[in-house]
Amino acid sequence: MSCIPLRRTVDLVRAAGLETAALAGQLLLAPTGLTPGRWPPPAPTCVHPPQPSRRTGTAPPGHAPVLLLHGLFENRAVFTLLRRSLRSHGWEHVHALGYSPLTADVHGAAVRFGRQVVSTRQLYGGERVAVVGHSLGGLIARYYVQHLGGSEHVHTVATLGTPHSGTPTALLLHPLPLARQLLPGSRTLRTLSAPAPDCDTRFLCFWGDFDPLVLPPGSARLLHPDLLVENIRVAGAGHVSLPVHPQVLALLRQRLSNPPAPAVRLTAAERLTA
């Protein structure tokens, strides 16, 4: 019995070391994330919108476009290693997006993110995209697909250390509206707990068992009866280290190589004649 607390202490020290190294790397790379990422030229305007089931874009089968959305007080540099990992394994279209920590609320951030998702689909011939969100970024992506019709455009949302059930540590940033929405029982989280029978997006939720910001760490799991969810515990991981953790990178490549079949939704006219 005495060896169990000792083992826990050793794991905690290792996790703290990994968090410290990840934070140092993030601070070192932060200046590179201040400039906008490279983005392809706008797609030619066409009369007919892209169809969800088509694979006529330049993205190869099994390697749909991937959008990355960082957490509060981060920038796109947090995904430097993940971008390199995906691109070195065949993903040609990986784009890191951003938002301001002074954004009024999750809903507004999700609306703006949705415009970027639709723009990405137009660029790549209608290909349904995947999204990877760290911390608050994962909650913004979830809000979009669950309550703003984004499931039509996004086949997979992977969240890394996202407080799906809220976290009391958000009290430390209480003056920020975005932070207040991360508190357990907030209106935003109550909205996300509502039924979502039409959302067919797949969720991959990674959580570290030594996360010092999402408390308790299991709050980063997504528990919703209407959603297709795979909760993945990353042993010995904290919060900042999740976007660079080798297990996370490997599992993301594996899961994103096999996206769900594209959803085909009926238009209003088709529903009337069906």
Describe the protein:
This protein has 274 residues and is α/β, with parallel strands linked by helices. The protein has a single domain (3-30, 60-259), classed as Rossmann fold. It has helices spanning 3-29, 80-88, 106-123, 136-147, 177-180, 187-192, 246-256, 268-273; strands spanning 66-69, 94-97, 129-134, 154-160, 202-208, 228-234. Strands 2-1-3-4-5-6 form a 6-stranded parallel β-sheet, sandwiched between helices. The radius of gyration is 19 Å and the shape is globular.
Task: Quickly describe the structure.
With 274 residues, the protein is of the alpha/beta class. The chain has a single domain, classed as 3-Layer(aba) Sandwich (Rossmann fold), CATH 3.40.50. The protein is built from 8 helices and 6 strands.
